[in-house]
Q: What sequence folds into this?
C-alpha cells in the first residue's frame, strides 16, 4: 500500500486492562483494523496518565500500575477511517477516540526482512 498526501489519523486511548470478550481491547482494535483493510496500526504503551476517572496510572518502579494508558494509532484515507469509527462504537465503552487530518509524507512498505525476527 502506498499513502501520501491528505489522510486521517485515528487515535484511540484505552486502559491496558480494558477487555473485549476476554481479550485485550487494544488487540481487538488492531485485528479489526486489519480486517477492515486499513493501512496499518501501531500500539504505544504510556508511562503515566489519567483520564475521566482522574486516577493517575503510572509505570514507575515504586508504584507499578497494571492499567497503563494504551494508544492505538491508525492512519488512512478519511472515508476508511470514518467507516471504521462505526466498529469502534461497539468496542470502546470508555476511553478517548480522536480523529485529525494529517499530511503523509511517506508511507511505503520496507524491504522484506532477512533473517532474525519476522514481521507479521
A:
Amino acid at each position: 500500500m502506498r499513502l501520501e498526501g491528505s489522510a486521517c489519523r485515528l487515535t484511540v486511548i484505552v486502559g491496558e486492562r480494558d477487555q473485549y470478550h476476554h481479550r485485550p481491547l487494544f488487540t481487538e482494535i488492531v485485528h479489526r483494523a486489519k480486517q477492515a483493510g486499513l493501512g496499518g496500526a501501531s500500539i504505544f504503551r504510556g508511562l503515566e496518565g489519567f483520564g475521566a476517572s482522574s486516577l493517575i496510572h503510572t509505570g514507575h518502579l515504586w508504584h507499578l500500575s497494571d492499567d497503563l494508558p494504551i494508544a492505538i494509532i491508525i492512519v488512512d484515507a478519511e472515508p476508511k477511517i470514518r467507516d471504521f469509527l462505526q466498529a469502534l462504537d461497539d468496542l470502546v465503552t470508555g476511553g478517548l477516540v480522536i480523529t485529525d487530518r494529517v499530511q503523509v509524507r511517506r508511507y511505503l512498505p520496507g524491504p522484506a526482512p532477512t533473517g532474525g525476527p519476522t514481521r507479521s
Observations:
- Residues 78-91 form the longest helix (14 residues).
- Helices lie at 25-35, 78-91.
